[in-house]
C-alpha cells in the first residue's frame, strides 16, 4: 500500500511537471498528448495557450472525463503505435508520466518523433541517490515520492534513470533540445549531478 505522504508529493510533482510542459509549448500550436489521463494538461494548454489539442488514452473512465472537459480524445493503445497519425501532423507530442508504463517505449518514442516536430517527455528518475541507498541497504525494490507503489502493485514496468534516457535518445538518433529537472518539487534548469539528485526529468527532443 502506498504511503499517503508519498502519494501527495507525487501529485504535487505532477502539477509542477504540467507547468514545465506548458511553458515549453508555443501558444496557438497543435499538441498531441499521449496517455493524457483525464485531460488536465490539455485543459491547461487550451485555456492558457490556445492550443489545438488532442489526447490519446486507453482507460475508458479517463476518456469520459476528457469528453466532459471538452477535450478531443482518442481511445488507443500506445504500444500499438501511432499508425493513424500523419508525419509531422503536430508541433508537439507530449508523453508525461507514461514512458515507464509502456511495453515498447522505443516504438512509441520513435513514433512521437515522426508525428511531431518536437516531443516532450517527462518521467520519474529511478537513479536518485535515495533510491539506490534504500536498495543497497534493504535489498528490496524501493518505493519513493516518484515511485510510491510497491513493485507488485505498480503500473510502472520500467525503472528509468536520467542517464538511461539520455543514452536512449542518442541510440534512436534523437537530439535533446532542452532538459529540465524537478528536485524537491522545484524546477531546476541547471542541476549538478541530475541523475543522482533529480526526482523527475523533463526533456524536449527532436530528430537530428
Automatic annotation (TrEMBL):
<dbReference type="InterPro" id="IPR010743">
    <property type="entry name" value="Methionine_synth_MetW"/>
</dbReference>
<protein>
    <submittedName>
        <fullName>Methionine biosynthesis protein MetW</fullName>
    </submittedName>
</protein>
<dbReference type="Pfam" id="PF07021">
    <property type="entry name" value="MetW"/>
</dbReference>
<dbReference type="InterPro" id="IPR029063">
    <property type="entry name" value="SAM-dependent_MTases_sf"/>
</dbReference>
Amino acid at each position: 500500500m502506498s504511503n499517503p505522504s508519498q502519494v501527495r508529493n507525487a501529485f504535487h510533482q505532477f502539477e509542477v511537471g504540467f507547468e514545465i510542459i506548458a511553458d515549453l509549448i508555443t501558444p496557438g500550436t497543435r499538441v498531441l498528448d499521449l496517455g493524457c489521463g483525464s485531460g488536465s494538461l490539455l485543459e491547461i494548454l487550451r485555456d492558457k495557450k490556445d492550443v489545438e489539442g488532442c489526447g490519446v488514452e486507453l482507460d475508458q473512465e479517463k476518456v469520459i472525463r476528457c469528453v466532459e472537459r471538452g477535450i478531443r480524445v482518442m481511445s488507443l493503445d500506445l504500444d500499438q503505435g501511432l499508425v493513424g497519425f500523419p508525419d509531422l501532423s503536430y508541433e508537439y507530442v507530449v508523453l508525461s508520466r507514461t514512458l515507464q508504463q509502456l511495453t515498447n517505449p522505443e516504438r512509441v518514442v520513435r513514433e512521437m518523433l515522426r508525428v511531431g516536430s518536437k516531443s516532450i517527455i517527462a518521467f520519474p528518475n529511478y537513479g536518485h541517490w535515495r533510491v539506490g541507498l534504500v536498495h543497497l541497504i534493504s535489498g528490496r525494490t524501493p518505493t519513493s515520492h516518484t515511485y510510491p507503489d510497491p513493485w507488485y502493485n505498480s503500473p510502472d514496468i520500467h525503472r528509468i534513470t536520467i542517464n538511461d534516457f539520455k543514452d536512449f535518445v542518442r541510440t534512436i538518433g534523437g537530439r535533446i533540445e532542452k532538459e529540465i529537472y524537478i528536485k524537491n518539487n522545484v524546477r531546476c534548469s541547471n542541476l549538478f549531478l541530475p541523475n543522482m539528485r533529480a526526482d523527475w526529468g523533463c526533456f524536449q527532443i527532436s530528430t537530428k
